[in-house]
Amino acid sequence: MSPYPRYQEPAKESVIRLIGIGNAGVNITDRLAMRAALSVHTVALNSDQQSLAASVAAQKLVLGPMTTHGLGAGGDPERAIDAARESLGDLQQVVSGADVVILCGGLGGGTASAIVPLLAKMAKDKGALVSAVVTSPFQFEGRRRTQQAAESLSELVKHADALVHFENDRMAELVEPRADVAETFAACDGLLFQAIGGLVRILGSPGPLPIALNDLLTVLRATKGGCLFGCGESEGANRAHEALEQALRSPLLDRGRLLQEAGKILVHLSGPSSLTFAEVSAVMNGISKSTAAGANLCLGVGTAGDDSAPLIVTIIGRTGVEEKKPCLPPALPIEAKQEASVPVPSLAPPREEMPSAAEPAVPSTKTQKVKQDFLPLEPIARGRFEKSEPTIVEGEDLDVPTFLRLRIKK
Amino acid sequence: MSKERIHVGLEIGTTKVCAVVAECGRDGEIRLLGVGESPSRGVRKGEIVDFQNASKCVHDALADAEERSDQEINSVWLAVTGSHLQSFNNRSSISMPEDSEITEKEIGDVEYKAKEISIPKENVILHSIIQRYYVDGQEGVIDPLGMLGAKLEADYHIIHGVMTRIQNTIRCVKEFDIEVDDVVVNSVASAQVVLSDAQKQAGAVVIDIGGGVTDYIVYHDGAVRHSGVIAIGGDHITNDLCIGLRIPITRAEKLKIEEGSAFPGGHPHGEKITLKNDTGFSGKEIDRDMLNMIINARVAELFTILKKRIHEVVPEHLLGAGILLTGGCSMLRGVREVAETIFEAPVSLAHAHSVSGPTSAFENPQLSTCIGLVRYAQAVNADMPEETLIGKFKKLINFNLGL
Question: Which of A80, A228, B151, B163 has the most CB within a 10 Å radius?
Answer without folding.
Answer: A80
